[in-house]
Prior knowledge:
Helices cover 81% and strands 0% of the residues. With 428 residues, the protein is mostly helical.
Amino acid sequence: xxxxxxxxxxxxxxxxxxxxxxxxxxxxxxxxxxxxxxxxxxxxxxxxxxxxxxxxxxxxxxxxxxxxxxxxxxxxxxxxxxxxxxxxxxxxxxxxxxxxxxxxxxxxxxxxxxxxxxxxxxxxxxxxxxxxxxxxxxxxxxxxxxxxxxxxxxxxxxxxxxxxxxxxxxxxxxxxxxxxxxxxxxxxxxxxxxxxxxxxxxxxxxxxxxxxxxxxxxxxxxxxxxxxxxxxxxxxxxxxxxxxxxxxxxxxxxxxxxxxxxxxxxxxxxxxxxxxxxxxxxxxxxxxxxxxxxxxxxxxxxxxxxxxxxxxxxxxxxxxxxxxxxxxxxxxxxxxxxxxxxxxxxxxxxxxxxxxxxxxxxxxxxxxxxxxxxxxxxxxxxxxxxxxxxxxxxxxxxxxxxxxxxxxxxxxxxxxxxxxxxxxxxxx
Length: 428
């Protein structure tokens, strides 16, 4: 018999404020660092934080696969311990690989980002190493619709990042200290997630042991199969996160130092519009996996994302018209005020792209992922070759690509069969 599930409304009441608080702490970190470090140094930090998000792609792929398979197991009240063991093995391998690649590229990255030393990039490696464990644990909790525990992992991460980052910057470690603070938050979040999942999956062990336990464990995918599935998801997620983050390092490379700091602050607004309604995708993902009215869920979710982005853009435009868009950061950042609504529109458009991508992952399809990977290459080429002389050119190019992707994603989703007609075969 299928397990009884909480209502989406109740889950939303937990997720919306908790995820909002988590992201608010992350944005507070960015805003405080912008004020303390100044535009030139904050431009470097913004580029490094964008690389942290790009490095999180393998972990987010694990989260999506963990949530998908956990939702399937939880629907039948089946043992989830084998799935968790497979995820831990993948998290260990992928986390070590991320750290090793970052260390190996530290000199090249430091030169490309015009950093004074490789220390900030080494701190970046420390932040990436445990991220896969954090995301894998959140995926297990998301698939179980254990939203209180899910948000606890993110809150611990955000608080640790803010407190440690402020302390290290105040101690005089500058950009390196700010990135090391992010590493502290990631390690704390990963440890919290692993502990919470260990407690949760123990409750799924079937009574009687022996053959019953072996059969229940056999229903979970092996580590190799899970790894292949997650690797396939990486293509689309990497494309999405390149689209949401690569513009900041490109702005750092092509624009003057102060202008890159302005762009990095605008990108914070884009992240607010992108991550703010993330709870919507988190809330409905398990239901997209196990059935239900997918099109109705998509339409309602998209409406919430558009409404939140429009509210943010209109509010920023009004503040800019009044000349109070950035009252706390001083005149050094005043020039970016009128462009902030464009950044809000960019983030909201990319949030819609994310929703469409995760709907496809839930359906075991791959076309949108391939389109995103191609779009990331096109956007990087357009900015690098032609549109990089000003903040407006870079954000305008990114927004045009995002809107085109929304149109493509809607077209693909409308052609996809409903869950009852999908069977077990992934879309080619």
